[in-house]
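The records we work with from here on pair a chain with its fold. A complete example follows; check for yourself that the lines match position by position.
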Amino acid sequence: MLRGLTTISFYAHDVAAARDWYADLLDIPAYFQRPEQGDPAYVEFRVGDYQHELGIIDARYAPHGWSTEDGGAIAYWAVDDLDATWKKLLEMGATPYDQPTERGPGFTTASVRDPFGNILGVMINHHYLNVLASRKG
């Protein structure tokens, strides 16, 4: 039934600031912005091995009940070096949500709250690396 991750949507009251923050983190510019000129209401990045979409939407368009309070699911992005990623996120102004924690051999997770109130998860996941290797083979 679920075939794969298509888009993760984050909300921000200042989309331009969020766009710039994520562009700095990801070391890539947003590839899509609407409107194209002026203050954006939506921006999108293509991220990682499968070019998953990370969208940032003006909080004015958030679904009813959206909150910056903790809760809900955490999407974890695969990273090559969790310690270096964790350090960079904190240096960029993210705040710890869940400290780096080994969940078992080959599985370590961490998460932060970005400066815009979204929870960003990062993870070392040997299953992800195995799937990636099998697709390249």
